[in-house]
Specification:
The protein has 422 residues and is an alpha+beta fold. Helices cover 30% and strands 22% of the residues. It has three domains: 16-91, no CATH class; 133-212, Roll (Pdz3 Domain); 214-350 and 367-392 and 399-421, 2-enoyl-CoA Hydratase, Chain A, domain 1, CATH 3.90.226. Strand 1 (17-18) and strand 2 form a beta hairpin.
Length: 422
């Protein structure tokens, strides 16, 4: 073989090989603008280049499968299923596809409102305020049924007495849908049928439908969750940190501890079983920071909180809902020897960003890796509890073994402290 030919083949070999492995050819286009836009965003923005060959093969299989063709005229449901299938090949958190028939869509739209700022007023006229019709309740599917997984504190669902674990049988006599069950019903009550125990008679409740703003709803739920549990003459505070993404999330916690219902608590149970992460990476400083608390006192004499630090005992509750920024929070607590009760966190710690697709569905995409300290990566591994306690959702009837175990742990901590002082 001539030297010139060898050189040309070598150059071609270097183009095809990247990092010692063959790079897959670009996947074929499907002809569907929504699917193709999602694919292109992954190819352009996804943080882990090493996963793209696997992704391209998944796209190729999806497009070329004769049993499930993707065309411009494909139904939305088929397109969304295809996007979910190819995204799953990336095996990463902060990567998903959300349509307007889910609560996730609206909550993420508010969390990522800056990323979609050019379209926010068009999507949510006239002022760009993200809202959806709902009752402040999240449900998860299982075995073909829907079970209440979260009830936001202070919400219509909480006021109506809906409990975590309830099976949702019907809403106004029809099957339950996250958004459609409450659409065009804001300002009036819906009739819900729930089943609290397997085979039990149905429980009927009336729930007022409201126009909910996701981030303010979270802030209200955090503030409303604060309460004191009396155990053995001790005051144990409890607060549920639903997310760090709302602007006033940690402010609500600080106010409850410094001036609100938890100011006289002997210890605090902090519930990190959230919906979303977000927030500042140093949010746990309120509990583990070394700077002293201080107040500002203007001429009027009315004190203003400038900095709050909690120096009394803390116990955290974690589970698979503890993700992203809340996982960093949990890791910081554990690193500072604050006990964690519950089950392993989600192992979902990457930096995500939202993109709008041509049908206004939302694509969340991991765009950066996340490392804690020298080389700690929680993605895929999570944070393990110090006191493992499992929780079974179906028909829990509001019972919460993880919260109960955390309160018991706090009792033991306070008792030990009293014994040492005595």
């Amino acid at each position: 073989m001539q030297i010139g030919t060898l050189r040309r083949l070598s150059a071609l070999f270097l183009i095809v090989l990247v990092g010692g492995t063959a790079r897959a050819a670009e996947p074929p286009k499907s002809g569907n603008p929504v699917f193709d836009k999602a694919v292109q965003l992954v190819l352009d923005k996804f943080y882990d280049v090493s996963a793209l060959d696997r992704f391209k093969e998944a796209v190729r299989r999806e497009v070329e499968d004769p049993k499930s063709p993707l065309t411009v005229t494909s139904p939305d449901e088929r397109v969304h299923q295809a996007i979910d299938t190819v995204l799953a090949s990336l095996q990463a958190s902060h990567t998903g596809h959300f349509s307007k028939d889910t609560i996730d869509y609206f909550e993420l739209a508010d969390i990522f409102r800056y990323a979609i700022r050019d379209d926010i007023k068009r999507l949510f006229p006239p002022d760009g305020d993200v809202t959806y019709p709902g009752i402040g309740m999240i449900a998860k599917p299982g075995n073909g049924l829907w079970y209440v997984s979260d009830v936001y504190d202070g919400s219509p669902a909480a006021r109506a007495g809906i409990l975590v674990g309830d099976e949702i049988v019907t809403v106004d006599g029809a099957p339950y849908y996250e958004i459609a069950s409450f659409k065009d019903k804001v300002g009036r009550a819906v009739d819900m049928q729930l089943r609290r125990r397997p085979g039990a008679e149905l429980t009927n409740v009336k729930v007022q439908v409201e126009s909910l703003k996701p981030l303010p709803t979270f802030e209200k739920a955090i503030a409303e969750s604060a309460r004191i549990v009396e155990r053995g003459g001790r005051k144990i505070g409890y607060m549920h940190l639903w997310t760090l993404a709302a602007p006033h999330s940690m402010g609500a916690v600080a106010e409850a501890l410094a001036e609100g219902p938890l100011k006289d608590a002997d210890g605090l149970v902090l519930d990190l079983r959230g919906r979303w992460g977000g927030g500042s990476a140093d949010a746990a400083e309120l509990f583990v920071g070394n700077t002293p608390p201080f107040r500002l006192i203007p001429r009027s004499g009315e004190q203003e909180l400038a900095n709050v630090r909690w120096h009394r005992p803390v116990v955290g509750i974690i589970d698979e809902g503890t993700r992203s920024g809340l996982e960093v929070f949990a890791y910081a607590l554990k690193a500072n020897h604050i006990p964690l009760v519950g089950s392993r966190t989600a192992g979902a710690l990457l930096a995500g960003r939202a993109y709008l697709l041509p049908d206004d569905s939302l694509l969340e995409l991991a765009v950066a890796n996340a490392i804690i300290g020298d080389n700690v990566r929680l993605e895929g591994s999570g944070v393990q509890p110090d006191v493992p306690v499992e929780f079974s959702l179906p028909y829990a009837a509001g019972e919460d073994p993880q919260r109960d175990a955390a309160i018991d742990e706090m009792q033991r901590i306070l008792a030990r402290g009293e014994a040492q002082r005595g």
